[in-house]
Specification:
By secondary structure, the chain is of the alpha/beta class. The protein is built from ten helices and 17 strands. The strands form four sheets. Strands 3, 4, 5, 8, 9, 16 and 17 form a seven-stranded mixed beta sheet that branches. A six-stranded parallel beta sheet has the order 12-11-10-13-14-15, with helices on both faces. The protein is globular and about 60 Å long.
C-alpha cells in the first residue's frame, strides 16, 4: 500500500475565543524528515493551555497555518540522515515536547540554560505540532518512551511531555524544602501531575482552585486541603506555584507564603499583575520567579522520576476530529485533569 501523501491537520485559522471555533481542518503534505529529523505518526497529543493561548490570540502566531500541539506521542515512520546517531529508528515510540530546538552556541546554551536561548524554537508555534496525523521532530529534542507490555498508554504519556515537564521545572524553581508546605494555584493538567510529584517527594500539598470538581480530584490524589482560588491555605506555605494564568492571584499567593517562601509562575501567559505592596508581599525575603519553558535535562529528569513513581493521569479523550471541542472545553473549565487528542 502506498504511503499517504497528505495528512489531516488542524490549524489556527483566525485567533478568536475557543467557543467561536478558531481552528480550521485542512489537508497538509506529509512532511519529509530532514537531517537528524524523525517523521512521526501521531498516536496522541495533549491539549495544553498554551494551545488555547495561541488559538485565542494571547500569544502571537510565529508561523502561518501551523498546527498547534506539543505533547506528542508517536511512532517513527522514517528517519532523516544522521537521526540514527541520536539512537532512533523506524518503529520506535517517541515523545515530542514544547522545546523543539535551540542554537546550541549562545551563552545560555553553553551554560546549560537552553530554555533561555534567544533562538529557541517551539513545537506547535515555530514548527508544526501534533494536531495532525503526522509530525516531524528534531531527533536531538525527542524523548525515547518505554514500549511494550506494562508501558504507559499513549494518551497517558502525552501529558507528561509538557504538563509534567513544566510542572517539574516549576517545582524546582519554587525551591520547595524537604517535607515542605506547597500551594498550587489552579489545578489543571500540569498541577495535577505536579501535586503527585511533590507528594512523592514527601511534601504537604494545598490546592487552591475555583473548580469544585478539581478540588475533589486534588483530595483524591492526596492533597492535605483544597479550597477556593482566593482562599487562604490552612497553614503558611514554604513554596507556591501559580498555574492559573490570572495575575490577580499573584498577591494572593505571595500573601500565603511564610518568611523566605518562593512563588513560581508556571505559565507562558499571565494577565496583568496588580500593584504589589513591598512590605506586605515581598519583604522578609519572599521571592517571585517566572518559569520559561524547560531544558532537555528537565525532560529527562522528570520522565525518569515519573517512570519510577508513575502518576495517575486523569485523561479525557477526544478524537482528533473534535479538537475544537477539546479547546472550547478547556477554555470553559469543563476538563478536569487533561484533554488528549487521539486518532479518529
Amino acid at each position: 500500500m502506498a504511503a499517504a501523501s497528505t495528512t489531516t491537520a488542524w490549524v489556527v485559522d483566525h485567533p478568536a475565543p475557543a467557543d467561536q471555533w478558531p481552528l480550521r481542518r485542512t489537508e497538509l503534505p506529509v512532511p519529509e524528515p530532514g537531517p537528524r529529523e524523525l517523521l512521526l505518526e501521531v498516536r496522541a497529543c495533549g491539549v495544553c493551555r498554551t494551545d488555547l493561548h495561541l488559538a485565542e490570540g494571547d500569544l502571537p502566531p510565529h508561523r502561518p497555518a501551523c498546527p498547534p500541539g506539543h505533547e506528542i506521542v508517536g511512532r517513527v515512520l522514517a528517519a532523516g540522515a544522521g537521526a540514527g546517531a541520536a539512537g532512533f529508528a523506524p518503529g520506535d515510540r517517541v515523545g515530542a515536547a514544547w522545546l523543539a530546538g535551540t542554537c546550541g552556541a549562545c551563552r545560555y546554551c553553553r551554560a546549560g540554560r537552553e530554555n533561555l536561548c534567544p533562538d529557541s524554537r517551539y513545537t506547535g508555534w515555530d514548527v508544526p505540532g501534533g494536531y495532525a496525523g503526522h509530525a516531524v521532530v528534531d531527533a536531538d529534542y525527542a524523548y525515547r518512551l518505554p514500549d511494550g507490555p506494562g508501558a504507559v498508554a499513549d494518551e497517558e504519556a502525552a501529558p507528561l511531555l509538557c504538563a509534567g515537564i513544566i510542572g517539574y521545572r516549576a517545582l524546582e524553581r519554587a525551591e520547595l524544602p524537604p517535607g515542605g508546605r506547597l500551594g498550587l494555584y489552579g489545578f489543571g493538567a500540569s498541577a495535577h501531575l505536579t501535586a503527585q510529584l511533590a507528594l512523592g517527594r514527601g511534601a504537604r500539598v494545598h490546592v487552591l482552585t475555583r473548580s469544585a470538581e478539581a478540588r475533589r480530584l486534588a483530595l483524591d490524589l492526596g492533597a492535605a486541603s483544597a479550597r477556593g482560588a482566593y482562599d487562604s491555605p490552612p497553614e503558611p506555605l514554604d513554596s507556591a506555584i501559580l498555574f492559573a494564568p490570572v495575575g490577580d492571584l499573584v498577591p494572593v499567593a505571595l500573601a500565603a507564603l511564610d518568611r523566605g517562601g518562593t512563588l513560581a509562575i508556571a505559565g507562558i501567559h499571565l494577565s496583568d499583575i496588580p500593584r504589589l505592596d513591598y512590605g506586605r508581599y515581598l519583604f522578609q525575603e519572599r521571592t517571585l520567579r517566572s518559569v520559561t519553558a524547560n531544558t532537555r535535562a528537565d525532560g529527562r529528569a522528570y520522565l525518569a522520576e515519573a517512570a519510577a513513581r508513575p502518576p495517575s493521569v486523569r485523561v479525557r479523550r477526544y478524537p482528533m476530529g473534535r479538537a475544537p471541542e477539546a479547546l472550547a472545553d478547556l477554555a470553559a473549565d469543563r476538563v478536569t485533569g487533561v484533554a488528549v487528542l487521539v486518532p479518529d
